[in-house]
Amino acid sequence: MNTGSPGRSGALRILPNPLAVASALAEPSRADRVDDPAVRVLAWARTAVGLAATVWLLMAYPLREGGEKFVMDKLEDLLIGCGITFGTAFVAVTAFIATARSPLGRVYARRLLGPLLTVFAIALGAAVCWFLVRLLKGEIITLSDFGYHGILFSILLIVVFFLGTLACAAALLLAIPVTVLALVYAFNSCFRLGDVHDLLPALISPLLVWSLFVLGLLDDPEVAAPPLVLYGFLVGGPLSVTLLSVWEVRRLRRRHGVTLRSALGR
């Protein structure tokens, strides 16, 4: 009779599910929001195509630099992208709330907690991953930083470093999928702006992706691909998001009666 499996299953159940954590952080949760199945399916289809195109690009063409440098650069780009996203969304949402008539402006302002939590969680996750990678590489602290203070202290220090390395590795294995999945959910939901108003994701998504497009133009390409492929890849994402946003605005107006005038109370 095998008694080990239940224990292992119980231990695995204690670990947080990265998919559930990412969904809770980045999926809209307002109960009375418009949930159109067609919009949801097309948004996920766009996200899936974008991810597939990214994987194809990385597999079809060699990296200009090593894989480790690529990962670290992507983490830095993620932090910069979160900053750009936060700045762009902050200006746009502030303008939306400021132009809404009372009491709608106050209602929308109270709903900003979810989107702010999403941006903060993704930025924090990327920063934690970047810190843990550097820590595991010995770029922040090493055994040699403590010097020699006797055999017992040295043995204790080695044990502490060994356990700390295991803990950091486990934390990194959890932080990476949570951060990546949260980013996928966040881009798909436009950082939970649907919790503020149903129209905001469609209105602000193009601003966010074209802002990141400018960042991509200024950054050096990661793969040695022909210019036509690189620029087509850069333009394809923002263009598809813009077209989907235009269609979503029209559908919200025709199917659900949601318009910018009604959103602003005018």
Could you write a compact summary of the structure shown?
The protein has helices at 4-14, 18-26, 37-60, 67-99, 104-110, 113-136, 151-189, 200-218, 227-256, 260-263. It is mainly α and 266 residues long. The protein starts with a helix and ends with a helix.
Layout of helices and strands, plus pairs?
Layout: H1 4-14, H2 18-26, H3 37-60, H4 67-99, H5 104-110, H6 113-136, H7 151-189, H8 200-218, H9 227-256, H10 260-263
Characterise this structure.
There is one protein chain. The protein is mainly alpha-helical and 266 residues long. The chain has ten helices and no strands. The protein is globular, with a radius of gyration of 23 Å.
Sheet bearing the most strands, described?
Answer: none
Low-confidence stretches: 1-5, 7-12
Q: How many helical elements?
A: 10
Helix-strand string: HHHHHHHHHH
| Residue-averaged pLDDT | 79
Please give the alpha-carbon distance between the first and last residues.
Answer: 71 Å
Q: What is the helix fraction of residues, given as a range?
A: over 70%
DSSP E strands, number: 0
Structural shape: globular
Beta-sheet strand percentage?
A: under 5%
Rg on CA atoms, Å: 23 Å
Structural class: mainly alpha
